Amino acid sequence: MSKVFTGLAVSVDGFISGKVPEGADEFGSGLGDAPTLFDWYFDGDTPSEVFDGFKLSEPSARFFDTIASRIGAIVVGRTTYEHSGRFGGGSPHPTAPMVLVTHGPVPEASDRQTVVTTGVEDAIAAAREIAGPKDVGLMGGGLITSALAAGLVDEVILHQVPILLGRGRRFFNELPEHVELRLLQAIPAPGVTHLHYGVGR
Question: CA 179, CA 55: separation in Å to the nearest integer?
């Protein structure tokens, strides 16, 4: 059966974006004052075979492309969707279709984006159908927390950047109980450490 997993860049203290500048629109500010979380996408000499324009270090490219190649569909939360300019009507992944999970209608969604308003379980089910034998990726802190709470996540991947941001948007929201993780891989690379965990049941 296909797996459901998440993989996001995160600071050592658990933030996926920094502080939004004073007076700026939250949904137009991207990573806030923390663009360094994604410097490792472009600081190397090895082009990604999945994402055009990415040039990573060799260990990062090997790990990143292996993970990205697994994805057959990607589920995105509404906040991430808005922060990312609605992905230009497409998907955050160059080949995998996007499923947007939200609480209400999204009139601006394109016909290339599947919108699910009935909860994370239905969104992941829709993504599994789209993905076929491939895996389902998750993107967005609130979405990932809801999926973990519902027992729907098989793996957690943290691209941990060696910085303490001290503020911003956290990766994980409050969970109703502990979630046990088992380390599958730890790959040090320039500017980032890739931590790959299996989720206990």
Answer: 34
Domains and CATH numbers, the chain: 4-15+29-199 (3.40.430.10)
Q: Cβ(7)–Cβ(67) under 8 Å?
A: yes
Q: Are 92 and 86 in contact, with CB atoms under 8 Å apart? A: no
167-201: pLDDT as tens digits: 888 888 788 889 999 999 999 999 999 999 999 86
194: Cα separation from own chain's centroid: 14
- Per DSSP, 65 falls in state H
Residue 58: count of CB within 10 angstroms of its CB: 12
Structure tokens at 3: 């797996």
Sign of CA dihedral 182, 177, 159, 81: positive
Among all chains, which residue has been given the structure tokens 């080949």?
95
d(CA 48, CA 70): 14
Tell me the pTM: 0.89
Burial 85-109, CB ≥16 within 10 A → b, else e: ebbeeebbbeebbbbbbbeeeeeeb
